[in-house]
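hi support,

uploading two proteins for the ticket. first:
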Amino acid sequence: MSFLADTTVTAAGKGRFDTHLRPGWDIGGNANGGYMLAIVARAIALHCERPDPITITAHYLNPGKVGPAEVLCETVKSGKRFATVTAQLRAGDRPLLQVLATSGDLGQVPESPEMIDGEPPQLPEPEACRPSDSEEGIAPPFLGKVDLRLHPDDSGFRRGEPSGEACIRGWFRLQETEQVSPWAMLLGLDAFPPTIFNARLPMGWAPTVELTCHIRARPAPGWLRARFTTRFVSGGFLEEDGELWDSQGRLVAQSRQLGLVPRPA
């Protein structure tokens, strides 16, 4: 099934939406955090009648497993352009995500001055980049749902040869030529391997504590360029700063994620 179908929510009462965490979107048996956040964002959009997430922050409380779930939404404020909503994704009596979001309509953004102090990451063409699922027995099921290709210089950790720089760059799109929506960019901002894999530090998955995403624009059709970097690993935590750039060279989404540093084996 498509990303759109697998993130479907259905109104089930005042502020309540039924959903289902679908198989195949997991890493190590736990649903990808961006996938779960996209489900919540779709419920929020229906609840406040604003189509697009503008900023959304999620605190991850428990792992998500395949099965039925629900999203509970409550409006904090509704104005002319934006609505702010709190939401919780639950599976039975287990809270999975606690979310605070501001939603609006990216198709009705007024003209304003721009200053872009940055540029898209320089990448070889997608065909020349290493498909993230190319090594049999390594790829989690999640990578069968997306088309994610790492810069050749950033994929050496798979061979035990990390670059030494806490950076991951690559291309992102959905499978089956499905267009990337603002909801799907929440997925893209949490789809890539942790930057710490390239840092020559104890390697392991970095569980997310909190993820904040800023959606700047609806992306043009085609591949998205992605760059994720980490500057500080301290106190048992690391941050990841993410960027997504569309096929027209526009910055369309940013993120900052706080994760736990993997414990040495």
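and the second one:
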Amino acid sequence: MEEITDLLMASSRWLVLTGAGISSESGIPTYRNKFGRWKRKQPVTHQEFVKNLSCRQRFWARNVVGWRFISQAKPNHAHYAIRDLQNKGAVIGLITQNVDGLHQLAGSKNVVDLHGRIDRVKCLSCGDSQSRSLLQAWFESRNPEFAHQAGQIAPDGDADADNLEFTRLSVPCCLKCEGILKPDVVFFGDSVPLKRLKVAREMLESASGLLVIGSSLMTYSGYRFCLWAEEQNKPIALINEGETRADHLAATKASAPCAPVLQNWLKRLSV
């Protein structure tokens, strides 16, 4: 812990990149184990969701259950520590691979939601956007047999509830054009919007280094920031309890829970 804190103290203006590990203490599970391997079935892809009605029914059936969990999730000590580090000027910005919105709920500013937000739903045809919370009442009124189904929370507003008879689920369409509604998140098989990626890269260019928290970096969308930091000769620090794809690129790594390391950094800054 002291080794990584020494590096973080050596300069200011760090850019933080967070993954699912930072939200695990808020009760939201991660996709992968400490070795970077899948802990559950791979989530639905963008292509499957768009092409297959039964796939959309399965997704929404699980999401109706999972939404009750994720909509009540609260920030944890790690989220608040990052907010405080921003307020002290040690962190200039934040890029998150998470879609839960907990960084903003904790009070962080200058946040790029790299993979979008699960609390928004977007029409794939006309682009109309609406709040996910408004859809919950629609789902429950038209699918009363799903309203009180139990399941175990899974990442990104999903739930492990494959016992549901999802083929009977009524799925909403866009009220404006009757197009397909999809959570405004980047599904597996899809790409991060170029405009969002450009903003994130510009943040890295103005930072003194990259601090990755709670991510295995197994997906290229996060790993690319480590490659860019290396190209720019900027130090990379990792806080993750398991292996990461960028272990060989890091100047230092703390294989530890996120919050204690961040709180130690805050304590050192306050001395």
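thanks. also noticed: The longest helix spans residues 53-70.
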